[in-house]
Amino acid sequence: MPLSPMPQPFSTQRRVEFRDTDTAGIAHFTAFFYYMEAAEHECLRSLGLSVLMQDADGHLTWPRVAAACQYFSPARFEDLLSIEVSVLRLGTKSVTWNFLFHAGPRRIAQGTLTSVCCRLEEHGPRSIEIPDWFRQRLQPLLLPPCDAAQNQA
Amino acid sequence: MPLSPMPQPFSTQRRVEFRDTDTAGIAHFTAFFYYMEAAEHECLRSLGLSVLMQDADGHLTWPRVAAACQYFSPARFEDLLSIEVSVLRLGTKSVTWNFLFHAGPRRIAQGTLTSVCCRLEEHGPRSIEIPDWFRQRLQPLLLPPCDAAQNQA
Amino acid sequence: MPLSPMPQPFSTQRRVEFRDTDTAGIAHFTAFFYYMEAAEHECLRSLGLSVLMQDADGHLTWPRVAAACQYFSPARFEDLLSIEVSVLRLGTKSVTWNFLFHAGPRRIAQGTLTSVCCRLEEHGPRSIEIPDWFRQRLQPLLLPPCDAAQNQA
Amino acid sequence: MPLSPMPQPFSTQRRVEFRDTDTAGIAHFTAFFYYMEAAEHECLRSLGLSVLMQDADGHLTWPRVAAACQYFSPARFEDLLSIEVSVLRLGTKSVTWNFLFHAGPRRIAQGTLTSVCCRLEEHGPRSIEIPDWFRQRLQPLLLPPCDAAQNQA
What one-character-per-residue DSSP string does chain B give? Predict the structure, then answer.
């Protein structure tokens, strides 16, 4: 049986901006959802993809169906966060992205975003199977089941 | 010579939310631009209008061409701001809105937003004269020239 | 056996603002986290409480440890959302708030925020048991176990 | 008479994120204020400075007293903006920053932020003269008077 290849998470960085902080002196919990989305889009760009794409059959779009984040340690103004992006689950029609945030060695947060692949039609988006050409580029980001379980624990 | 009628500014209130604040413990300067836009839209609704409207000739839209704000005193989490909305200038194609922010008797900020009336066309928005039915409803909000001058001083 | 009293959720409303929307023409998924926090704080105010309080022993603060949201149907500019706020879990040291969003009869989203009760000390926040005077005011918002289970399903 | 040295503006880039856009399909006018602040802070870091600093006399802070922006052309999701940061006016106690935004050759926006140098004291910030060690590092960013006039025209 062939071994599955090691997953290759995408890595990026993000500096905590002043407007991301709040009266408590730390990055507001909502900032991490912005960071996740921007990291997801940057990851897609690195693969030659985008959340707003077109193929022969029309326009693709990826509405969110779920978002979640756990917070382990506060981040502060001008902290440089490293963000590791991987895919926790690659379903027939949906993708669950996974994000790990660190500030140096300190673990800051872990979050997920789930989107459904849709075709933009006259009356709004209709869910479809993820096209193969899109799925194949996400495949290398997919975490092996045990890592995914650990990550969720 | 007939006297012009007294202008009738629109008034509303807004509470400073936690996410509007920053590490300095005050409402971030950008929050006032959100407050202005929301107050403008609330004012339009009170007049039976909206920034996104349709008439017999198609869709209207109002892109911003300028925004400005002066800050006099900080606002803090849970402060209840009163906002007075008026029209500083009602041009042929553009409107300059004026906003005064107070927290009780304390003057907090004063700002302006300028938008151009546009018809949405295939290749994007094209500036047009403000339709009469729209202009007439804004007229009562127009500040007399001397108040406008004072406000800008 | 005494029946537990019916829980009394707190209700409020929120209009989708222009800046909450995105290029897809709907309220951005992050907007619901802002709405949740603002509704939580409004609920606390209605009970005579705040997220930033002081008692004889010092300052209380409530850092977030988790946030999550599921999206059922899109909300659009100027939609008026009704928000029902209740408590899903009232632990020794933490509270999990629950939020249901509707636009008229249409279910829009459901989310949770979990915060830990902390005492602000010199070296940062230290988790403590929720003081009785705080807990008692939250008690009427607590969902019965079966509703809580359903809500999570 | 010695010639003044050529000013050396600071340059950076910023990609328009999805959450920065609105229902009209363009970057919301408020996004540029965030971009300006982040570019200002990045410029300060490049000079070894920060908006939150400490010297022998205590803490420095820079509250905003004014913010303004003019919009020339819309920016869209994933557009890469170049931002040129300079100093329009270096007063005794205040600095007015100037920001020019382009997307390729297309001029997008021009804005200013004015901040007052303050010492953080027990009862809040008190305005002071900008310390020499701070002023000297901003000096090379100062636009010559004629450019400044043109910029404002």
Answer: -PPPPPP--EEEEEEPPGGGB-TTSSB-TTHHHHHHHHHHHHHHHHTT--SSEEETTEEEE--EEEEEEEE-S---TT-EEEEEEEEEEE-SSEEEEEEEEEETTEEEEEEEEEEE-EEEETTEEEE-PPPHHHHHHHGGGBPPHHHHHHHH-
Q: Which fold has domain A10-152?
A: Thiol Ester Dehydrase; Chain A (3.10.129)
Q: CA C114 to CA B107: how far, in whole Å?
A: 36
Q: Specify the CATH class of B10-143 in words.
A: alpha beta
Summarize the confidence of residues C48-71 as an average pLDDT.
Answer: 93
D133's CB contacts (< 8 A; 6+ apart) are D55
Question: What pLDDT, on the 0 to 100 scale, is given for residue A1?
Answer: 46
Q: What is the pLDDT of residues B13-42, one digit of tens each?
A: 999 999 999 988 899 999 999 999 999 999
Q: Quote the minimal CA–CA distance from C30 to chain D in Å.
A: 8
Domain ranges of chain C: 10-139
Yes or no: domain C10-139 corresponds to CATH 3.50.30.30? no
Residues of B in contact with D67 (CB under 8 A): 29-30, 68-69, 71
**Tens-digit pLDDT profile for residues D84-140:** 999 999 999 999 999 999 999 999 999 999 999 999 888 878 999 999 999 999 999
pLDDT digits (tens, 9 = 90+) for B59-95: 999 999 999 999 999 999 999 999 999 999 999 999 9
pTM for the model: 0.92
* C68 near A CB under 8 A: yes
Nearest CA in chain D to A19: D34
Averaged pLDDT score across all residues of chain B: 91
Q: Are the Cβ atoms of D18 and C19 closer than 8 angstroms?
A: no
Please tell me which of the candidates C19, C23, C76 has its beta carbon nearest to residue D18: C23
Q: Determine which of B8-22, C138-152, D44-58, D60-74 has the lowest per-residue pLDDT on average.
A: C138-152
Chain A residues 9-48 with a CB less than 8 Å from chain B: 18-19, 21-23, 25, 28, 30
